[in-house]
Amino acid sequence: MFFARSRARDVTPADRPAAVDKANILGSVWMVAAMAAFAVEDVFIKAAARSLPIAEVMVLFGLGGAVLFAGFALICGERLISAAVWSPVMRLRMLFEIFGRLFYTLAIALTPLSSATVILQATPIVVVAGAAAVFGEKVGIRRWIAILIGLAGVVVIIGPGTDSFSLLSILAVVGMLGFAGRDLASRAAPAGVSTAILGFYGFLAIIVAGAAYSFWEGAAFLWPDGVSVLNLSGAVFAGIAAYACLMKAMRTGEVSAVTPFRYSRLLFGVAFGVLLFDETLSPQMVLGSALIVCSGLFILWRGRRVQK
Fold it and tell me: Would you say residue 189 lies in a domain?
């Protein structure tokens, strides 16, 4: 089962390298599947936002995911409310989740899906910088240069001062920063909080974000038609599958081996944007994407070498 805790296997020294390689390959496949599912989730949300108010899309999407994750948790005999869940770190994590979900949903609804997806790929870069600032992790000059290059890629995509610049593109940047803060808070979260519980509160944060945005949007909620229901259902199930595959990936292979495959989301997001929403790729988006991905992969590679 997706949400079952992984069990340690007895591996002899002779077969350990082969076992590790196999686990890394399998973990990489799970990671690619997770990124594909996240991209599909974005497609369904963008499609649903064409016929429903954005706040309503967020509330209904969050409600569907929260109910399913709550069901998984209860089936596994876990409590939805506990001291660990309401710890200061978990409250901070949820605040960042609300922040990130709100602005990233606005980004994929109001701006090209391809550009929002590309900007989101800077999250790991910001996490590394944040880890150095918040947790005091050692980051050498080479990785700091790579971080600056990756952030420069975001600036290239946004294009301030150019004819293609739009203030709406800032939405994806703010959402990305929110997700980076969530990931940093997750590193300090209690280890006993399960995947299902994290998923429940993650989707609960979407409900809160949508409800808060409804006051700003000021649009009355509509009764969803058949197409909207299908889009929302697709988003919920894609989100559940993505979260499950992501946790499976992180628990199957080595983190340093499977994490680079997070950037496959860029390929899926750009492909869906071009094929389904008639978006075009500008030279500055291609250049910015290359800077973000190359700097991110270099940071991961350097981090692995430092740990050895």
Answer: yes
Rounded (10°) angle between helices 226-252 and 195-217: 140
CB contact set of 106 (below 8 Å; sequence gap of 6+): 54, 171, 175, 213
H or E segment to which residue 189 belongs: none
For the record, the structure tokens of 195 come out as: 């995947």
- The residue type of 265 is R
Phi and psi at residue 138, in whole multiples of 5°?
A: -80, 125
Place of tokens 């997070």: 262
Whether residue 291 is contained in a domain is answered as: no
pLDDT (tens digit, 9 = 90+) per residue, 138-174? 777 888 888 888 888 888 888 776 656 677 888 999 9
Residue 17 within any structural domain of the chain = no
Cβ–Cβ < 8 Å for 150, 292: yes
Residue-range definition of the domain harbouring residue 270: 22-137+165-280
pTM of the entire structure? Answer: 0.81
Q: For 78, what's the count of Cα atoms within 13 Å in the CB-facing half-sphere?
A: 22
Residue of 282, 268, 284, 265 whose CA lies nearest to 124: 265
Answer whether residue 182 is part of any domain.
Answer: yes
d(CA 123, CA 146): 13
| Structure tokens, 5 | 């805790």
Cα-Cα-Cα-Cα dihedral of 243, 24, 268, 229, to 10°?
-20
What is the tally of structural domains in the chain? 1
Question: b/e string for 232-251 if b means 16 or more Cβ within 10 A?
Answer: bbbbbbbbbbbbbbbbbbbb
